[in-house]
Amino acid sequence: MKYSTFGLIVSIGAFGSCLGAETKECKTDATATGDATTTLDVHNPEQLDALEGCTILNGHIVIQADYEGDFSLNEVTSIQGNVSTIENGVEGLGLFEMEKLREIDHLHLLGLSGDVKLPKLESIGDLEFVQLSDTGSVDLSSLAEADDLSIRGSWLETKLGSLKTVNMGTQFCASQNCSIYGPERKFPYITVDLPSLKKTDYFEVAGAVKSVSVPKLEVVGYVEWSPSDYFPRQGLRVNTEDTKDNALDFDAPKLHTLNGSLEAYGGVSSISLGSLGKTDVRTTLNTDIPLSFYSTIQTAQHFHIWGELRSIDLPEMKDLGYVSLSYTTELPCNDTLYLLWQTQDDNSSDWDDYNTCLDYDYPQDKRATSQGTATMTTATSSTTRSTEIIPSKNEATISRTSSQATETETASGSTQSLTPENTAGLMFSIPLMDCFVLLMMTSVFMFLF
Ligand SMILES: *[C@@H]1O[C@H](CO)[C@@H](O)[C@H](O)[C@H]1NC(C)=O
Ligand SMILES: *[C@@H]1O[C@H](CO)[C@@H](O)[C@H](O)[C@H]1NC(C)=O
Ligand SMILES: *[C@@H]1O[C@H](CO)[C@@H](O)[C@H](O)[C@H]1NC(C)=O
Ligand SMILES: *[C@@H]1O[C@H](CO)[C@@H](O)[C@H](O)[C@H]1NC(C)=O
Ligand SMILES: *[C@@H]1O[C@H](CO)[C@@H](O)[C@H](O)[C@H]1NC(C)=O
């Protein structure tokens, strides 16, 4: 069979453009000379035309307040620099898309009202998206690793199906500043779906949250903080809008390592942590609706149960440190409550009205007795009292002792990091595969003509 000239031209053209598409490296500010990092301030979409054909960008891009329209850079695969909006956000910004982007230093997009499409992005430093308009969805379906992730506002959907590791904080807030507004301000409820997340240093959901799914989450809190870190964020915090008809159930069935703090406030109706064992966690449960709390936790630094409680089951508890009980509901006693009242730091008779365990016949849970897990040591020293902070619903209450910060990590769980080498490998292999498919197609094409 003979190749036609037309087919040959198409095939050479396709191969040429395909090789060319891989290598064009540009500075964000094309007019700049010298080696210094450039910053391009964009005021309108037309300014992006200057970057047409570029696949690798060096430098920053800052979207200015007067920008109106979509932001599309669909050829770019890599950015050595940040893309940000100015701090107060850009009201006129529509769709934000970079269809082929695989890596970027940091992204700070504030005051968004359109969709964000970054379907190929695999790794990033800091990512901060703030939604203004109660619409819009985020596509980050290839993102596997981030240093810090904060997605705030009422997004309709956030696709993060591949996210495995967030080195610092993972934060989802239905409001722009993570505040809780109460029933008077209605937000659409957000869904937090993280089917692959295994490891993060801090995990927070706040505001109008419909559901949270973290079926593979194993480790929260693994970074070694140095004593000089003034305010490390480490731990798990669930602080949701208090509405009776949309209570949140939080279940982290695989979470075996939790450091820092464990906090639940607002409209949380249940927490289940079925893989925890020994921890040094500072626990504060202070919900506005009756909470059911189940955990296999054995040890903690402190354990405070304030607010409303429906049930508590801690079948493996050994020493929960400084125990403080001031839940406002009168509950029938069970083994867990009996042991907690035994070790409550404040033994004064003021609490006798709430203490339904005064005449309790312990132990009743035969399972716990036969396993010999129901032994309790007495509460730890009352010096912890001086470091206590009474939490208010909307404030972080993280305090930390320096001794803790020098502990060494023994947490298991593997870090899956994208090293510069294998990121570069990916960057090459995928375009080459595209080329291969294109070549195959053009060969078929040649046979046809
Ligand atoms: C880039 O982002 C990082 C991390 O968020 C930030 O510290 C840095 O100041 C940013 N640089 C510029 C030029 O925007
Ligand atoms: C959060 O934002 C709301 C309005 O958007 C404001 O009323 C509130 O004071 C803010 N809270 C904080 C802690 O900044
Ligand atoms: C985290 O907790 C585990 C289990 O309690 C402990 O072995 C480890 O040292 C802690 N790591 C950090 C960084 O605090
Ligand atoms: C007591 O513990 C049992 C499990 O042993 C649990 O099913 C029950 O709900 C708990 N009751 C209260 C009041 O916490
Ligand atoms: C509280 O009282 C119980 C028994 O009445 C006792 O075993 C326990 O040690 C006391 N706890 C503290 C912290 O004093």
Query: Could you give a short account of the major beta sheet?
Result: 19 strands, parallel
User: Overall 3D geometry?
Assistant: elongated
* Cofactors and ligands: 2-acetamido-2-deoxy-beta-D-glucopyranose
Number of helical segments with 4 or more residues: 5
Classify the secondary structure makeup into a structural class.
alpha/beta
Which regions contain 5 or more consecutive residues with pLDDT less than 50?
1-17, 372-435
CA-atom Rg in angstroms: 27 Å
In terms of DSSP E residues, the strand content is 25-35%
Number of strands: 26
Helix content: 10-25%
Mean pLDDT, all residues: 81
Task: State the distance separating the first and last CA atoms.
Answer: 10 Å
Gist?
The protein has 449 residues and is α/β, with parallel strands linked by helices. It has helices at 5-23, 335-343, 366-371, 402-405, 420-448, and strands at 25-27, 39-42, 56-58, 60-63, 69-72, 78-85, 93-97, 103-112, 116-117, 123-131, 137-139, 145-152, 157-159, 165-173, 190-193, 199-207, 209-213, 219-220, 235-240, 248-251, 257-258, 261-266, 268-273, 282-295, 302-313, 322-327.
Give the topology, please.
Layout: H1 5-23, E1 25-27, E2 39-42, E3 56-58, E4 60-63, E5 69-72, E6 78-85, E7 93-97, E8 103-112, E9 116-117, E10 123-131, E11 137-139, E12 145-152, E13 157-159, E14 165-173, E15 190-193, E16 199-207, E17 209-213, E18 219-220, E19 235-240, E20 248-251, E21 257-258, E22 261-266, E23 268-273, E24 282-295, E25 302-313, E26 322-327, H2 335-343, H3 366-371, H4 402-405, H5 420-448
Parallel strand pairs: 1-3, 2-4, 3-6, 4-6, 5-7, 6-8, 7-9, 8-10, 9-11, 10-12, 11-13, 12-14, 14-16, 15-17, 16-18, 16-19, 18-21, 19-22, 20-23, 22-24, 23-24, 24-25, 25-26
Helix pairs in contact: 1-5
